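*** Fold description ***
***
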Amino acid sequence: MPRYVVLLRGVNVGKGNRVPMAEFKQLLEELDHTHVKTLLNSGNAVFTSGARSVPKLATAIAEHLETRFGVTTPVMVKSAAEVATIISDNPMPPPDDHHSRFLVAFGPTEAAVRALEPLVALARPPERLIVTKHAAYLYCPDGILQSKVGEAMLGKAGKGVTTRNWATVLKIHALLPLA
């Protein structure tokens, strides 16, 4: 059966949108997903499912999050193959000591990712934003908090996507194979 990643936007940041990861894992299991593992406290999980429709998976998870936790948030679901492609197609892998300064933006569709293209003009060297059909990649060597692109992506301009730093992306990928 296929393996999937689910990424929630903006949960467990500040006081709002609280989704306890143990309960999130339980929710996914109640939806008949197996081999569920969560990572960190920021809405990351991997699971196995017989479902084949990524949009239907995302919709079902979003509906159950709202019912159980009262949280309405974008839910991104990616297949293991999509995550592998996002990693292998990275056009500018960061140095090992800069994984926290490198964001990957995941969207539910190519159009959602492409909507970030206007932000490319905000990047000031040595910062770079590259938007592809699978993901957008933002490298902020001076730090995410100093980046106008990072600020825009984490705000309204990025409302249709969710971001994870490169270290987290690699940890999620490492959870995908079944032991």
In short: Strands lie at 3-8, 34-39, 44-48, 75-79, 102-106, 128-131, 136-139, 162-165.
